[in-house]
Design brief:
Structural class of chain C: mainly alpha
Shape of chain B: globular
Distance between the termini of chain B: 60 Å
Structural class of chain B: alpha/beta
Number of helices of chain C: 2
Helix content of chain C: 55-70%
Radius of gyration of chain C: 28 Å
Oligomer: heterotrimer
Largest sheet of chain C: none
Strand content of chain B: 15-25%
Radius of gyration of chain B: 28 Å
Number of strands of chain B: 36
Number of helices of chain B: 31
Chains: A alpha+beta (202), B alpha/beta (963), C mainly alpha (64)
Helix content of chain B: 25-40%
Largest interface: A-B, 73 and 77 residues
Strand order of the largest sheet of chain B: 5-4-18-17-16-6-7
Order of helices and strands of chain C: HH
Number of strands of chain C: 0
Distance between the termini of chain C: 88 Å
Largest sheet of chain B: 7 strands, mixed
């Protein structure tokens, strides 16, 4: 079975936030919640890189592992979803997630956070596909319509790719090869202890 | 319970946690509902910060309801991304990516991804309003039109037609913009303008004077063929994000990306080479590049000999710019200048891109010429992957520039001479003498340069100077009286300089009319208490029409939703006003008007009948709609349809699309490309300046012609006489002969001359050379002049500005009197401004968009850590930024190394504050934008281009102090 | 029987008894909700859907 994955190509990301806005638009995400956000490292300096982050739909999802009421489930496509009816707003999933994907609507340090909301890979939630209830709680279900997440489909530079993991990898490999055979993703030079051309040139 | 076990088993299950019946937790949650504590858990969407209104709840997609898809073009920037709107029962419920569009391939920037918010329109002006005694009163349309019309007629009687300034818009469609220009012409004034003035007016003037047309020569898509790209004063990653798709693909293909900017922009973050330049020193930089090019013999000598005029004059000037001098003036190290020159020269075809960073200076008309000259020296013009790729601003600024309201020319650059008026009078079907009678014919006024002219034949007051038209002593104006009323349709005011004086001008006006979807900064920035009108105007999503993208392609927009609230489209408002003012019959003679709304297709057809100069004649509504319908058949690299119903056409029929629509010219994708026949989109340089000057030929050399041309050398522009001499006259049909007799390719309304000329493979506008020496300009060869407000007062003596002018476009205009004072002592920092990706233009509509407002909630200024430390300002602190003419703005400091030491940068999109005060209470109820902030132009200063009156926004001075 | 034998017999009974108590038994019951199918998803349809999504990806997100 294919796994649905996101990949944000940092070489192409211009930090424009089209993905964030497309998501807000499609699911009418309330003010205060950003299911997707763009992070810019070394802002304003040489080596500036932007990347778009949302729920990464982990194969071994830490959020699902720690949820005390077990409201997470993974679809056969590998999409990690949750049931807001069961969520108690404890916030454990937020602690567990390395990407900060779970978002909570209530802005208080104490008390109820409200129902957790996060990127659904545009695959909705437990209610029937395309139903009004599903839209109200989870947003649009594009996967059921045979479409892919709007953030990836509307990315300004096609930096953000979202779809079948194998196909996404294929595309990325093509790009890397075209760029000269080694990814400029950060961490590469740390992992392999050699400087990329970018680091060598001022 | 062993939760770990459960999880482990259930992780791969596709079912949600199964029902356990009501248990303690569920009970508590449902109890919470009863308590009604804040959020309604589990039942309604958690729009907790702000309860969703009933209106919003309406605009979501419902299952089982029929869904319709309509296509339009985004109304923000000039890339022209396709937008697909999902509609249910006429309500806009979603957006889909327009992946078939060859221009954006489905992509959007945040502005394009957020356009559905227009379907909600919470903060729109909902009905006509009038400011009376400081409060906004609701009016009916009839009342509003009658009151405004009566006042205008009274002002006209007392002070003449030039006492009203009509500001049109580059956010209007081609049809709306065209009517705006026509409206002012029939009212009897040339005081009409649009955003192009403050955008690329210098580009159009400078580039057109070099080789014929002042528009982007290639296209965004074509940049994928470039081997090197130089971005000067262009922040494409924020201003044209979707264009970056093509640019980054080019980079992936091995193209070298060079960015030259005072800031390390988001575009620079992707560049291979970045050079930090001092604002306003573009001319020395290009001379520095040319110095390296000529010294190393990298120029294309053959190309220059065959197609260029007066390159030797440039060589002489280049000698004044050796590397050390360039480094001193621009701040760029000489090795880097050499590296950039080498990269551009050795990686051809290379392209050059520029935007506001270059155009908004008082010498910019000359700067852009030098950019063209650089490309000519490298032989990069007229080739795929090369060109002068001018990224225009607003979605239809290209169209508004071409066919719309301009104070210095009638539609399609015909000019303002008698011949131009007679041409359009004929197209409009209106008597020329009647039009003439509408103007102030009492006397001739000073038209500058020692000439006298009637207002009808003299450029009007441009939008960059309208405040001077109001405030200047009327004895100094080249018209009867001051401007007493302004009508702004679709134009912000916080994008023009000198906000402090603008406030005074607004307070002096007899009447202010704002026709806009949103109230804009203009409705609140002054202390006016009376006689301000707000007319609710539709956005481009509530009407259909065409828009011209930066690459000259015209795209058709479908109407997405019915006008919201009581708003009306631009053309309907102009119809109502024309009817009140008494000239609607003349204005809409050939345009069908149904239920008080002019037909959009008819307007485009009228443009087609008259736009012979630039080839807006072949883009009929039918052809454009066909292109929109079959847009998926166009190749994204060449923009050509290799098959399908549009076979052979280039997407959007980029102008010049010669001849009548029946001739089916495919459009010209790359300007001045002689490798194709003219009939297939090829072209040569225009021969607009005669055949020779001082014995040196201005026509192309022998053997230089577009493919398939019957004339195998340079030739002048075509007239009926030329055709007769060539023996081609008899190829015209009898009707064509009748219309074309005594006319030329621009004024022959039958199109016969163009048809026959193109049949013989020739370009209607001649085959000339590109000029390096533009003798009509103040500086025939571009020379560097320091900005009026410069931090390098030591350079002013060597690179001074122009002497003051007494009458320049009807106004006295100062240059030297400003520059001779050393302002840098008191105001040591360069103050420049630019764009953010989240907002567009004056920001009235984007700052009222919920999803965009989320992304950038506050105005700010970027300050280098060194300057911040010197001034005692911390990151995030409020500071006062005082401009060199005393205007002050209170903004948050963003301390970042993005700007170099000595430069302060602000975005220009904000409005709704004035000198530290939030004006939220002045907005009509329910229309204050979500995000308000200081307009940076409150603190900007005087300075106007010597050819086009463009404002000098990019290089002025300021100082900063903690607030 | 020796006392150790009684202990052993006790252990022989107790230990299995205790172990059965410790074994995990699922308390899950699938409640029926009319009109809602809770079984495993259809394999053929899933494969078709997967191909649909791959085609969509290639149509919209690749560099055309």
């Amino acid at each position: 079975m294919a796994r649905m994955k996101f990949l944000c190509d940092a070489e192409r990301c211009i930090g424009c936030n089209a993905c964030v806005t497309a998501c807000n638009n499609e699911h009418d995400v309330p003010w205060g919640i950003n299911r997707r956000h763009v992070i810019t490292l070394k802002d304003g300096e040489s080596g500036e890189k932007s990347i778009s982050v949302a729920c990464m739909h982990c194969t071994d999802a830490p959020c699902a592992a720690v949820c005390p009421v077990d409201c997470f489930y993974t679809t056969p496509d590998g999409i990690v979803l949750h049931d807001k009816d069961l969520c108690i707003g404890c916030g454990y999933c937020f602690y567990a997630c390395p990407f900060g994907a779970p978002q909570f609507p209530e802005q208080s340090s104490f008390g109820v956070h409200g129902k957790m909301d996060k990127c659904t890979f545009c695959a909705g939630g437990p209610p029937p596909d395309g139903s009004e209830e599903e839209y109200q709680k989870y947003g649009r279900n594009r996967i059921a319509e045979g479409k892919l997440p709007l953030c990836a489909e509307m990315c300004a530079t096609k930096a953000l790719l979202g779809g079948d993991g194998d196909v996404v990898s294929e595309i990325y490999i093509q790009r890397v090869t075209q760029r000269g055979g080694r990814p400029d993703t950060w961490g590469w030079n740390i992992a392999y202890t050699f400087k990329t051309d970018k680091e060598k040139k001022p | 319970m062993k939760p770990f076990h459960k999880k482990w088993l259930q992780r791969i299950s596709s079912e949600p946690a199964s029902q356990r019946g009501i248990d303690r937790r569920t009970f508590l949650i449902r109890g919470g509902v009863a308590l009604g504590s804040g959020a309604l858990l589990g039942v309604l969407p958690l729009s907790c910060m702000r309860q969703a209104t009933t209106e919003e709840r309406k605009n979501f997609p419902r299952p089982g309801v029929k869904t319709e898809y309509r296509r339009t073009i985004c109304n923000h920037c000039s890339v022209g991304c396709g937008v697909i709107a999902e509609l249910q029962n006429g309500v806009w419920v979603g957006q889909e990516p327009d992946y078939e569009s060859p221009i954006n391939l489905g992509a959007h920037c945040p502005k394009g991804a957020s356009v559905r918010d227009h379907g909600f329109g919470h903060l729109r002006v909902k009905f006509p309003m009038k400011l009376a005694n400081g409060t906004w009163k609701r009016l009916s349309w009839d009342q509003a039109i009658n009151e405004i019309g009566d006042r205008l007629l009274k002002i006209r009687e007392e002070s003449g037609p030039d006492a009203v300034f009509w500001c049109g818009s580059s956010k209007a469609s081609n049809e709306g913009a065209y009517l705006q220009g026509k409206f002012a012409a029939l009212w009897g004034t040339n005081n009409v303008d649009n955003q192009a003035r403050i955008c690329h007016s210098t580009t159009v003037a400078g580039v057109a004077s070099t080789w014929g047309y002042g528009a982007m020569t290639n296209s965004y898509n074509d940049m994928r063929n470039s081997r090197a790209m130089l971005f000067l004063g262009s922040n494409a990653a924020e201003a044209h994000p979707v264009a970056m798709q093509h640019i980054l693909r080019a980079k992936e293909g091995g193209s070298k990306m060079i960015v030259v900017d005072p800031r390390f922009t988001r575009t620079a973050a992707h560049a291979d080479i970045f050079a930090r330049i001092r604002s306003g020193t573009d001319i020395p930089f290009i001379y520095g590049l040319l110095w390296n090019v000529f010294k190393n013999g990298w120029e294309d000598k053959d190309y220059i000999a065959r197609r260029v005029y007066a390159m030797d004059d440039i060589r002489k000037e280049v000698e004044k710019w050796p590397p050390e001098v360039v480094e001193n003036v621009t701040g760029i190290p000489k090795d880097k200048v050499r590296l950039i020159a080498e990269t551009m020269a050795k990686n051809r075809p290379s392209t050059i891109v520029w935007c506001m960073g270059v155009t908004q200076h008082h010498i910019a008309s000359h700067t852009v010429r030098l950019f063209c000259i650089f490309q000519l020296a490298l032989g990069n013009i007229g080739v795929s992957g090369g060109g002068a790729n001018i990224f225009r601003g607003h979605d239809n600024v290209q169209g508004a520039t071409d066919v719309g309201p301009n104070c210095h020319t009638l539609s399609c650059y015909y000019g303002l001479a008698e011949g131009a008026w007679k041409h359009w009078a004929e197209v409009w079907g209106v008597d020329y003498e009647w039009i003439k009678s509408r103007f102030d014919l009492s006397r001739k006024y000073d038209a500058g340069g020692g000439k006298m002219a009637y207002p009808m034949n003299m450029p009007g007051i441009p939008v960059s100077r309208w405040i001077d038209g109001v405030l200047e002593d009327k004895a100094n104006l080249s018209q009867k009286d001051n401007i007493r009323a302004v009508f702004f349709q679709g134009h912000a005011c916080n994008s023009q300089t000198r906000g402090v004086e603008m406030k005074k001008a607004l307070e002096k006006l007899d009447m202010l009319v704002i026709s806009d979807p949103y109230p804009t900064h203009m409705s609140v920035m002054s202390d006016r208490k009376n006689d301000t009108y707000l007319l609710p105007t539709c956005t481009q999503f509530e009407t259909s029409g065409s828009a011209t993208a930066s690459n000259r392609s015209l795209q058709w927009r479908e109407k997405i939703i019915e006008p919201l609230y009581e708003s009306k489209p631009d053309h309907a408002i102009l119809y109502l006003l024309a009817r009140k003012l008494g000239f609607e019959k003349e204005m809409f003679k050939n345009i069908k008007v149904e239920k008080d709304e002019p037909g959009v297709e008819d307007i485009l057809r009228e443009i087609n009948r008259g736009a012979w100069t630039i080839g807006y004649t072949g883009q009929s509504p039918e052809r454009l709609k066909l292109h929109a319908q079959h847009r998926g058949t166009f190749d994204p690299l060449t923009l050509k349809a290799e098959g399908g119903p549009c076979k052979g056409d280039y997407y959007g029929l980029p102008w010049p699309c010669w001849g009548k629509p029946e001739m089916k010219h495919p459009g010209t994708p790359i300007l001045y490309d002689p490798s194709k026949p003219v009939a297939e989109g090829g072209l040569v340089f225009r021969a607009a300046w005669g055949t020779e000057r001082n014995g040196v030929p201005l026509l192309a050399a022998d053997g230089v012609y577009s493919r398939g041309s019957d004339i195998k050398s340079g030739y002048p522009e075509f007239t009926s006489d030329t055709l007769k001499k060539l023996g081609w006259w008899d190829e015209l049909t009898p009707e064509e002969k009748k219309a074309a007799e005594g006319r030329n390719w621009k004024t022959d309304l039958s199109g016969g001359i163009q048809r026959v000329v193109i049949k013989h493979g020739c370009a209607p506008f001649g085959n000339g050379r590109a000029r390096c020496n533009v003798w009509e300009y103040p500086d025939p060869i571009p020379v560097h002049r320091e900005p009026l407000y410069t931090p390098r007062f030591d350079l002013v003596e060597k690179y001074p500005t122009y002497p003051d002018r007494k009458a320049y476009w009807r106004l006295p205009t100062r240059y030297q009197s400003i520059q001779k004072v050393n302002h840098s002592a008191k105001y040591p920092l360069i103050f420049t401004s630019g764009r953010l990706v989240e907002y567009e233009g004056g920001g009235a509509d984007t700052r009222s968009n919920r999803w965009l407002a989320k992304l950038r909630p506050e105005m700010f200024a970027e300050v280098n850590p060194k300057d911040a430390a010197d001034a005692g300002i911390f990151n995030g602190q409020y500071m006062w930024l005082e401009g060199a003419e005393g205007g002050r703005i209170k903004v948050r400091a963003l301390v970042t190394p993005r700007v170099g030491p000595g430069t302060v940068w602000t975005p220009f999109h904000f409005g709704g504050w004035f000198q530290g005060k939030d004006l939220v209470d002045r907005y009509p109820e329910g229309t204050a934008p979500w995000v308000r902030g200081e307009a940076c132009n409150t603190a900007t200063t005087y300075g106007y281009d010597s050819v086009t009156q463009m404002q000098e926004t990019k290089a002025t001075l300021c100082r900063i102090t903690p607030a | 029987m020796k006392p150790g034998g009684y202990v052993l017999m006790l252990m022989a009974f107790l230990v299995p008894a205790v172990l059965t108590g410790c074994s995990y038994e699922s308390r899950e019951t699938t409640l029926h909700k009319p009109g809602v199918y809770k079984g495993v998803k259809d394999d053929l349809l899933a494969r078709q859907h997967r191909q649909e999504l791959i085609d969509r990806f290639k149509l919209v997100q690749t560099d055309r």
